[in-house]
Amino acid sequence: MSSAFQLMYEQWLAKQIREEPNPRRRELLAKGLSHGTETFLRAVWFPAIGNFDFLYPEYEVRDMNNGCRYLDLAYLPGAGAKGCIEIQDYRTHARDIDTGRFKDLCLKHALLALDDWLILPVAYLSIRDDPAVCRQLTLAFAGRFLSTSAPPGLGWSEAETVRFARRLARPFMPKELSSHLQMSERQTRHLLHRLVEHGALAVASGNQRYRSYKLRQQ
């Protein structure tokens, strides 16, 4: 995982720098991402999602006064969907933050929400102490953007399963999905059965306990 992450991370960040026309953002990226952001990507995002598609670090947005603000991570999967992930470091955002910066942080999140951004604040302490919980939250966050590419009426775990199957592009065993979703194998099998009944997945081979699954051909 570590070497795979490091290679993909370096390629992704280099591409962001290379293709960025804005000199200010390019300068920020060239300095490297914050420890909190990189830790989130390494311990949470990459294990949960498996790639950095549609993810933009130090993303610049304009506020109501035409000032620039930078998001830790923007998730922009298309069709006007906008997600923002903010890493809340304990030292910066809780213990040592002054009144002015706290008010500005609240204003920043309010303006993003009013501009239809879906905001996912993640505490650095949670990344460190509860990475599995953070991965589940991240999967739920990403799943909110799957309405255009997954059958209607699916919950986040069901939608993420469809995306997982698309990304693999091969049959998979329940154990693989269980590890990905951080769910028990029993819960995973119930989830897969629902998706087969829904018509989103099909049994690829085997029977009962040793079945593998795949996307149903449209």
Describe this structure in words.
This protein has 218 residues and is α+β, with helices and mostly antiparallel strands. It has two domains: 142 residues, Trna Endonuclease, Chain: A, domain 1; 60 residues, Winged helix-like DNA-binding domain superfamily/Winged helix DNA-binding domain (Arc Repressor Mutant, subunit A, Orthogonal Bundle). The chain has ten helices and six strands, in the order αααβββααβαααααββ. The strands form two sheets. It has a four-stranded mixed beta sheet, sandwiched between helices. α1 packs antiparallel against α2, α3 crosses α7 and α9 packs across α10. The radius of gyration is 19 Å and the shape is elongated. The two termini are 33 Å apart.
Q: Give start-end ranges of low-pLDDT stretches.
A: none
Number of helices: 10
Main-sheet strand order equals 1-2-3-4
Query: How much is the radius of gyration in Å?
Result: 19 Å
Assess the beta-strand content as a share of residues. 15-25%
Number of domains: 2
CATH topology value of the largest domain: Trna Endonuclease, Chain: A, domain 1
CATH class of the largest domain: Alpha Beta
Order of helices and strands: HHHEEEHHEHHHHHEE
Assign the CATH architecture of the largest domain. 3-Layer(aba) Sandwich
- How many beta-strand elements? 6
Helical percent range? Answer: 40-55%
Mean pLDDT: 85
Based on secondary structure, the structural category is alpha+beta
Principal-axes geometry comes out as elongated
User: Termini distance?
Assistant: 33 Å
Keywords summarizing the entry:
218 residues, elongated, alpha+beta, Trna Endonuclease, Chain: A, domain 1, Arc Repressor Mutant, subunit A, four-stranded mixed β-sheet
